[in-house]
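Batch job 17 of 40 flagged for manual review because the log was empty.
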Amino acid sequence: MGGTNPDRGKTVSTVLGRRLGGELLRMRLQRKQGQAAAARALTASATKVAKMERGLVPMRDPDIRALCHLYGERDEASIARLLELAAVDRDRRKAKGWWDHYADLQSLVEYVALEDIATRIRAWEIAVLPGVLQTPDYARALAAGSGAWPDPAKIEPFVEARMARKGRLLGEQPFELWVLLHEGVLRQHVGGQAVMKDQLSHLLDMAKHPNVKLQVVPYSAGAHPAMGIAFNIVSFAEADALDVVHMDTASSAVWLEGEADAKRHGQFFERLAQMALVQRDSLALISAIIKEL
């Protein structure tokens, strides 16, 4: 992600670029149009169309409108969503954010870069707290426990980078954060009792911010549609407009970029929210766990 190449990002596949390209590809296939027809509409080559559909190049508004016209898309609201996504992707490709200086973010670099331009994030966590809500000691204990840093001294840059993410959540134009936590996240003693007591107290403080909503899914909720999986739904424009879903695995980050995937995980989240304690009761539970510690 580093470097000073002025063309940086122009021939790189980005999450937002793939999301937009996937939408255009879906529209083209629905209309049974070939890449050659799309190329003629753009007065360009089929290679350019292929790159657009794979998210490899930034897209110009006139090109998007020309393809929408070719594919029979007349709904201005739908076209506007695509144009908004294209604008955000272009800004993302040009950006040289603070995250570029933190190699220790590893596979989270792309997620953090998108977090920086998001308007809303919905997070469902089953094992750990979201990075933007972590205290330094909690993040440090997670890093040490992961075994990913053989040299403990190298953990500190990672912790520093994680703390830097709070600026986007608490800044002048913060994104909306809606977090659903499994009760087990609160009861897992990451770093020991003292670290957890401080971390849970920090959660209560963060929940006071108007852009932060926090709910707990208690053990008593029983079976639910997202057992065993954690995910973040990242939004960039109006609610539900071309969202992308991020999931972390033990070895890599996974992005689900299709409309069906975003819709399905949005439904999972809504179902979980219905099963969760309301925020007032969630905070009361956190306070009770603090007293237990």
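Reviewer: the log was empty due to a logging misconfiguration, but the result itself is present. The domain at 98-292 is CATH 3.30.870 (Endonuclease; Chain A). Unflagging and moving on to job 18.
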